[in-house]
């Protein structure tokens, strides 16, 4: 049985994962939501104005009242900058699984932050919410995300071929998962 507890603040040595705040808007615009390359990696729209970002934050912040809603701002402790986001979504209460997604501004790539954030959320997913399975995916060609997924210990499950039609071509989606007993090992 799942124990829904909502989006609570969690920390690692270098990161704070916390609920989004309206004051995150400038960092979001500066570091990732306005970047077409970053947003296309997880099929999200591009936001170019503070009004658009406020609308997104309205959606995020308004959902925090639900105990089964999980979306964190990724804050770099040293700078206090909101460098990205990570979420648990596609929550399946019946079968006790979920999927996670994450993104970081390109300035913060290749520093281990995504892997660190994923590991925090895995711990939260298995030890606090009690999921049996956590799954994650990436688009074919997203080598950086594939590296995060493999470093985090996920097991490849399969490919949904030609899942997306983007920029005039088809792109496949690769799926991975981790079971709770695999996480404990």
UniProtKB/TrEMBL annotation:
| Residues of the N-acetyltransferase domain | 15-181
Task: Report TM segments.
Answer: none
Query: What one GO molecular function would you report for this record?
Result: acyltransferase activity, transferring groups other than amino-acyl groups
Q: Which UniProt keywords apply?
A: Transferase
InterPro entries noted in UniProt = Acyl_CoA_acyltransferase (IPR016181), GNAT_dom (IPR000182), N-acetyltransferase (IPR051531)
Question: What highest taxon heads this organism's lineage?
Answer: Bacteria
Q: Read off the PANTHER family from this record.
A: GNAT FAMILY, PUTATIVE (AFU_ORTHOLOGUE AFUA_3G00765)-RELATED-RELATED
Q: What is this protein called?
A: Ribosomal-protein-alanine N-acetyltransferase
């Amino acid at each position: 049985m799942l124990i829904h507890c909502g989006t609570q603040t969690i920390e690692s040595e270098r990161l704070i994962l916390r609920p989004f705040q309206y004051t995150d808007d400038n960092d979001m615009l500066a570091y990732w939501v306005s970047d077409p390359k970053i947003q296309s990696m997880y099929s999200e729209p591009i936001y170019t104005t503070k009004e658009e970002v406020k609308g997104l934050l309205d959606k995020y912040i308004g959902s925090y009242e639900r105990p089964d809603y999980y979306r964190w701002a990724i804050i770099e402790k040293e700078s206090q900058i909101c460098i990205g986001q990570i979420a648990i979504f596609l929550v399946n209460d019946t079968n006790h699984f979920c999927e996670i997604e994450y993104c970081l501004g390109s300035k913060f790539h290749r520093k281990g932050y995504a892997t660190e954030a994923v590991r925090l959320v895995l711990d939260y997913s298995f030890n606090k919410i009690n999921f049996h399975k956590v799954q994650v995916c990436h688009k074919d060609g997203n080598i950086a995300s594939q590296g995060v997924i493999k470093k985090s210990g996920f097991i490849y499950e399969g490919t949904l071929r030609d899942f997306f039609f983007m920029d005039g071509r088809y792109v496949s989606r690769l799926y991975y998962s981790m079971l709770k007993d695999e996480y404990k090992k």
